[in-house]
Specification:
This protein is an alpha/beta fold and 422 residues long. Helix content is 51%, strand content 10%. Bound molecules: iron/sulfur cluster (SF4).
Length: 422
């Protein structure tokens, strides 16, 4: 074979082996949405909107049904409704440069549509009785929830987490615990339920079990060949996001983990004849999951680990110290930390998972989850001797994404891996 000749084999044609637990997950997600819809229409239970990384445990413990608008934002992206809806939010003053979960969700509300209708027959998103945010991920969530607080004239409360921190110190935790406690009177008023620390312990314990199992699911990706892909994980993380703190999420991840361990034992890779193993940093491109997954599959390349799916690993939960451990779990997160911590964290996963190359997704409307912007890929390439690739796109706004260019760049990246000496 001459130098520079294309080394990528013919795209593989084998049909994919589906993850059998998927049907159980779909049922779980359906009952989650249908329960909230019913409760909201009948007034049977109060509904709290919550940001994806908390403080859901407190809300469950106080008897709320918990709805996660970021999950709705991802559904708008995955169903490709988002790009057409974003301009409606732009028209009322929300910039095209801010979070496209926010703009897609507000756009959907203004037009009176939701992907929940086609999926579950639900006519509209549940109206919140209270809106609860945590700025540990970004400020956009506060502005997003504030839109609905004005729209519906309902209470909004939140936690302002320290950001860009290297070490988590005691004063961070003390401050956050005080902030969490500060929300309780409003939540008691809305729910009509008195705060009970023992109930919170039970929920934190369930969240701990859920998140521990989710971590084990993701760690299955370290097996060679890996039994799941990043694209599978973006789907199967649904229960860890919306059902954390409930027993059904624990049961689900036990089932999924057993299936993945069985695949590992039988050496069944999610990508047959796996040749390369990649790490994905940044948000998924929700509207292009299938295309990207197919491209990697065709090149016998598996994206086996990611920062994004790890965002629902909360090692610190501890039912003996529920409030303090919630504060710690939600502050220890990758997105809250500075560049030095982030690099250390990624290095561990990259080494453990036998990664050959790293893809950074620079999502136009989410600087918070785009870690390429301060030279991290270049430093990583030098430090670990690994090829890195930055792709430009967005989580939801497909006007920021060039399919052609991304496809070509990924193809060239994998060819570069092919030519690397073993
Ligand atoms: S972290 Fe990014 S995607 Fe998530 S809500 Fe904030 S801006 Fe949007």
């Amino acid at each position: 074979m001459s130098k520079g000749e294309r080394l990528v084999p013919e795209p593989q044609k084998q049909p994919r082996k589906q993850i059998a637990a998927t049907s159980q997950m779909k049922k779980l997600m359906a009952s989650h949405f249908l329960e909230i819809d019913e409760a909201q229409r009948t007034g049977r239970k109060k509904v709290a909107w919550c940001t994806s990384v908390g403080p859901a445990e407190l809300l469950h413990a106080m008897g709320f049904l918990v709805y996660f608008p970021e999950n709705h934002g991802a559904l708008l992206g995955a169903t490709r409704m988002a790009t057409d809806l974003i301009p409606l939010a732009n028209a009322v003053g929300y910039s095209p440069d801010i979070c496209s979960y926010l703009t897609a969700d507000v756009g959907a509300y203004l037009r009176g549509v939701t992907p929940l209708t086609k999926a579950y027959g639900i006519q509209k998103v549940p109206k919140a009785d209270v809106l609860v945010y945590n700025t540990n991920q970004c400020r956009d969530v506060q502005d997003w929830f504030s839109f609905y607080a004005r729209e519906w004239n309902v209470p909004i409360v939140g936690i302002h987490t320290h950001r860009n921190i290297q070490e988590v110190n005691d004063y961070h935790i003390t401050d956050l615990v005080a902030q969490i406690k500060g929300m309780i009177p409003t939540l008691e008023l809305v729910s009509g339920t008195k705060f009970d620390i023992d109930k919170l312990r039970e929920v934190v314990d369930l969240s701990l079990q859920c998140t521990s199992l989710w971590k084990q699911v993701l760690q299955c990706g370290a097996a060679i060949p890996a039994p799941l892909t990043f694209f599978d994980a973006t789907i199967h993380m649904g229960p860890a996001v919306v059902l954390r703190g409930k027993p059904e999420a624990v049961d689900y991840y036990k089932t999924l983990l057993a299936e993945l361990n069985d695949r590992i034992e039988k050496k069944e890779g999610a990508v047959p004849l796996e040749r390369h193993r990649l790490y994905w940093d940044g948000m998924p491109v929700w509207g292009k999951l299938r295309e990207l997954s197919d491209q990697f599959y065709g090149m016998q390349t598996n994206v086996v680990a990611s920062t994004y799916c790890n965002s629902w690993i909360f090692d610190a939960f501890d039912p003996t110290h529920p409030l303090e451990s919630m504060a710690r779990a939600y502050t220890e997160l990758f997105i809250v930390r500075d560049e030095s911590y982030k690099e250390w964290y990624m290095d561990q996963w990259i080494k453990t998972f036998g990664i050959d190359g790293v893809i950074f997704h620079d999502a136009k409307t989410c600087p918070n989850n785009s870690n390429n912007r301060y030279s991290m890929p270049q430093r990583m390439a030098v430090r670990l001797g690994l090829p890195t690739l930055v792709i430009h796109g967005d989580l939801n706004d497909l006007r920021c994404y060039s399919e052609e260019q991304t496809r070509t760049n990924i193809e060239a990246f994998v060819e570069q891996l092919d030519q690397k000496p073993a």
